[in-house]
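assembly run, all chains below
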Amino acid sequence: VLPLRRRAGAPSGSPPPISGARIQKLCDRVASSTLLDDRRDAVRALKSLSKKYRLEVGIQAMEHLIHVLQTDRSDSEIIGYALDTLYNIISNDLEEEEQEENVPKQADDLGSQFTEIFIKQQENVTLLLTLVEEFDFHVRWPGVKLLTSLLKQQGPQVQQIILVSPMGVSRLMDLLADSREVIRNDGVLLLQQLTKSNAAIQKIVAFENAFERLLDIITEEGNSDGGIVVEDCLLLLQNLLKNNNSNQNFFKEGSYIQRMKPWFEVGDDNCGWSAQKVTNLHLMLQLVRVLVSPTNPPGATSSCQKAMFHCGLLQQLCTILMATGVPADILTETINTVSEVIRGCQINQDYFASVNAPSNPPRPAIVVLLMSMVNERQPFVLRCAVLYCFQCFLYKNQKGQGEIVSTLLPSTIDATGNSVSAGQLLCGGLFSTDSLSNWCAAVALAHALQENAPLKEQLLRVQLATSIGNPPVSLLQQCTNILSQGSKVQTRVGLLMLLCTWLSNCSIAVTHFLHNPANIPFLTGQIAENLGEEEQLVQGLCALLLGISIYYNDNSLENYRKEKLKQLIEKRIGRENFIEKLGFISKHELYSRAAQKPQPSFSSPDHMMFDHEFTKLVKELEGVISKAIYKSSEEDKKEEEVKKTLEQHDNIVTHYKKVIREQDQELEELKQQINTLKSQNEQLQTTVTQQVSQIQQHKDQYNLLKVQLGKDNQHHNSHGETFQMNGIQLEEVSKLKEELEEWKNKHELLQGQLREKESVIEKLKSSQLEMGTTEQSSQAGKSGGSELNNELQKELETLRSQIQLQSTEISKLQSENQKLQLLNAAADPVLGDCGATTAKNSEVEGRLLQEVKELKNEVKALSEEKASLKQHLDSSNSTVAILQDQKSKLQQEVAESKKEQDDLLVLLADQDQKLSALKNKLKELGEPVEDEDDIESGDQADEDEDGEEEEQD
Amino acid sequence: IKIIVIGKWRLGVGKSCLLLQFTDKRFQPVHDLTIGVEFGARMITIDGKQIKLQIWDTAGQESFRSITRSYYRGAAGALLVYDITRRDTFNHLTTWLEDARQHSNSNMVIMLIGNKSDLESRREVKKEEGEAFAREHGLIFMETSAKTASNVEEAFINTAKEIYEKIQEGVFDINNEANGIKIGPQHAATNATLAGSQGGQQAGGGCC
Ligand SMILES: Nc1nc2c(ncn2[C@@H]2O[C@H](COP(=O)(O)OP(=O)(O)OP(=O)(O)O)[C@@H](O)[C@H]2O)c(=O)[nH]1
Ligand SMILES: [Mg+2]
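ok done. output:
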C-alpha cells in the first residue's frame, strides 16, 4: 500500500453549495445523541462531507470531533472516523495534488489555520499521542497520518509539545516496530516530519535505536533496489545525521558505517537503472557525504573517513567510479562523495592514488578522471566533480602533490609517450583552446602547489616544447605569454590565480617572474588602464600578483627591488588606484560564493571564476599587501631592523631555552646518580655490619682458642705423664687443626666479602667520577667525591694486603700444624714400645712443646691482625659516613642548580617582556607580528586554521 | 551498554567533564553548558570481553528536564552526579532519583557520584553523607574528580561491571534493546558462555 500522501484522485472543481444547517445538524447529533450508533453514523457522515466541504466541516465540527476522541475511546470505529475527518480538514495533501493538476489554489492555507486551532489545546496533541499507541489499525493508522499532517503544518510548535510530553518521542519510535507495513512506512514519514531541524528530537530518536531499525528496513527491502520505503528511510537518516555531531558520533561508534558498504555493491550489469534506484543511490551517497562533510568538526570527519576506509566503503565507491554504465548523475555524485571521503585523510588519499581503472593497460584512476576534466564533451557538473576530487586528493597531501608535480619534471617524463601522465594532461588543459579546461587545469595545478614551497621551486624547472624549431620555454614563461595574448577572461583568471599561488611565499619564483622584463610592464599596464566591468576582475588579480611580487621580493634583482616597484606603482598607477583595483577581487559577486565551501559548484560554466582555496589566499594577502604598498622605504628599513633585533632576541630566548633544557637533563641525571649511590651505600653498609659481626665471632673463637692453649700449656708443664699428655696433645692438636680449618674458611669468607666491598666501592668511585664530570660540564665542577674515593681505595688496599698477610700466616700456621701432626704420627709408634724410647720421647716432647709455643705465638699474631682488620673495617665504616655526607652535599648542589634554573626562568620572563614590548612597538609600526605562541605550538595554529575554514564554509 | 549521566544544573556539577575525562582523558576548565544531550563512547574490557559503553551526557538545567527524561527508558545504567562543594546539588538528589526510578527500567544500575573531590578545602558534603545516602537507596557510591581523573575510570567501569553481572545473572533481557544492552555479533565465537560478547553494550547518560 502506498502512503496516502502519494495517492492521487481527489475531487476537483468547486462543490455545489451546501447548507450549513445540514452540517450543524450532524454536529448536534454527535454532541447530544446518547446512542453510540447514532453518533458513529453522524461522524461518518461528517467524514464523507469533509473533503468537499473542508472549510465548513472544519469550522463547525472540529470541537465535537475532539470531544469524540476524548470520550468515545472504547469504540475504535468512531475514533477512526473522527481521526479521518480531522485529517481531511487539516491535511493539505489533497490540495497539493490538485495543484499539480493546475487547479487554482483554494483558500490560503486552511490546513495550517485548522492546525493552529487544534494544537492550541496541548492536550489534544497528547491525546493523539496516546491514540497512536493504540494497537487497533483503525485508530493507529489515521492517528499517525493526522499527527504527520499537524507536524507538516506547524512543525516547531507540535515538536515542542511532543518533546515535553513524557516519553512522547519514544512512543512514536515504536511505530517502526509495527509488523503492518503501512503503519511502519507511515511511521517513517511521521518521524521524518518530527525530526526536521530539531536536534533534541533527532538525538532522542537516535537513542531509541532508530539507526538500527532503519538500516534493518533498508536491508530487508533490498538496499538500493528497494522501493520508496528505502527512500523514506534514507531521508529520515539524513534528518538524523545532518549537522548533528552527537548523532554522527553515535552512528560511527555504533559501527553503522560498516552497514553502508553493501549499499554500494551494485554489481556489473549497470544497464537499466530504475528511477527509484537512482534516487535511492543518490540519497545513499549523500548520507556518506553528510558524515565526512568538510563543514563537520575536523576530528569527527577524519574518524569517519578512516572508518570508511577500514570497512571497505571507500574501495566500494571507487569500484563504482571505475565501472561502466553508471548513470552520469550517479557517477558525478560518486566522484563528489569519494572526494570528501579522501579529503585531507592521508591513508584514503594514498589508497585513491593506487586505484587503477580496469582498462588495458591499467591506468591510474586519477589520470582517467583528469582526462574527463579537460574533455569539452563531458558534462559540466562532472568536470567540476573531477576537479573537486583532484583538489581533495591534494588537500594536505604533500606526498600526492609531489607525485603530481614530478610527472612534469624533465627527469621523470616518460620519453616513450606510451602512457599519459597527470602532468601532461594538466599542461594540455592549461594551453588548450577550451577556456574551461584552462581554468580547471590552472586551479588543479595551483592545488598541487598549495602550502608547498619546495614544489613551487621545483615547478620552475619545467620546460615546455612549444613548436618545432623553437627553443623550449619554461612553464612560468608560457603562462605569462598566454596571459599577455589576451585570451578569454576565464582563461586569464585561471592563469592569474595559478601565478598568485605559485609566487606567494616563494621568493625564488618571484625572482624568476621578475626576470622576464615583459611581465611588470604588462601588469602595470593592465592595472593602470580604465577597462570595462568584465575586465575588473583581471585587473584586481593583476594588482594582487604585482603585490605578491613586492611582498615576497627578496631584493635580489637590482632593477626590481621592493622600493623600485613601489615607486613604479606610485608613478604609473597611483597608490589609491592600486588599492581600489586590488579590492575588485573580494568585492566580486562570485567571490563570496566560492569562499563558502570547498566544493566547486557553479550555476553555469561562465560563473566558474573563483577557487575556494584561492579565496583564502586573497583573504590572507589583501591586508598585508595594502600595508606594504603604503609603507615608506624608511619604514621598511626600520621594520627590517626591528625584525633583526627580534630575531636576536629570539636567538637569546632559544639559547636560554636550550640551556634550561640541558640543565634539566643534567638534573635528571644527577638525581639518578644519587639514587644509585644511595642504594650502593645501603649495600655497603649491610656488608660492613656483616663483617663486624663476623669479626666479633672470630674474636670470640680466638679467645676460646687462647683459653684452650693455656690449658694445653699447663698439661705440658706437668711432666711424667707423657702418655696422657701426649694423648691430650694429640686431641688438642686435632682440635686446633679443626679450628684452624674453620679459621681458614672464615678468612676466605671475609676476603670474599672484602672483595665484594671493594668492587662496590670501585663502582661508587666510578659513578662519583661520572657525576664529577657532568657537574663540571654544568657548572664549576665538584671534587671531593674522587678524593674520598681515593682515601677509600687506599684503605682498601691496606686492608687487602693485611688480609693477604693474614692468609700467608694462616698457611704458615697450617703447615706447622701439619708438621705437628706428622710428628704426632711419628710419636705414636714410639709410644707403642714405650720403655725403650723415653729419651726419644722427651725429645719429642720438647719439640712438641716448642711447636705449641710457636703455634701460640702465631695465634697471637693472628688475633692482632684481626684487631687491625677490625680497625680498618671501622675506618671503612666512617668512609661510608663520609660518603653519605658527600651525597647530601651533592643533593644540595642539585637544589642549587634548580635555583639557578629558576633564576634563568625569571630572566627568560624578563626577556619575554622585552620581546612583547618590542612586538608592540612593531605592531604600532603596523607590522604584522607573529605571536610567539603561534610559532611554538604549530598544532594549535593548525586547528585554528581549521576553525576558520569551518566558519567560511 | 547505554549509560546516562544525570545531575543538578546551574554552574554544573561536572557531568560533561566526567565524560570528557573518561573518553578523551582531558579536562575542560570552562563550563560549557550542555544543551539537551551529548553522546560519547568508549571501549572497555570486562572479564576479557570487549564492551562498548555508549554514554549520553544530559543537561543539568531544569529546562531540559523533559528532554533528558526520554533517555531513562533505554539506559542500562545511570551515573547520578552531585558536586561535593555545593550542598544544594546533594539536597536535590532525592528528586532526581525519584524521577530516574519512575521513568527507567527497574533494573537500571544507578551509581551515585560525588564529583570535584579535588576541591577538599571547599567541601560542603561529607563523604560519609554520600555513603549513607547511597546505602539508604541501594546505590553504589564513589567520589571522583574530573579534574585529576581520580576514580573516573572506576566510576564508569564499575557501573558497567555491575550491569555485566546483572546480565550474567539473567536479570536483564539482553534481547530487548530497550534495556540499553546490545550483544555485538562480531565476537560471538569468543564467549560461548554468554552466547556472544558485549560488543555493543551501551551506557545512557543522566543528569543531576
Ligand atoms: N575542580 C574541579 N572542577 C570541576 C570538576 N569537574 C567539573 N569541574 C568544573 O565545573 C564546571 C562545570 O562542569 P561541566 O562538566 O560542564 O558541568 P555539567 O554538569 O555538564 O553542567 P551542565 O551541562 O550545565 O549540566 C566546569 O567549569 C568544570 O571545569 C572537578 O572534578 N574538579
Ligand atoms: Mg554538561
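Residues 256 and 279 of chain A are 21 Å apart (CA to CA).

The beta strands of chain A are 356-357, 363-364, 463-464, 473-474.

not gonna interpret more than that til we talk
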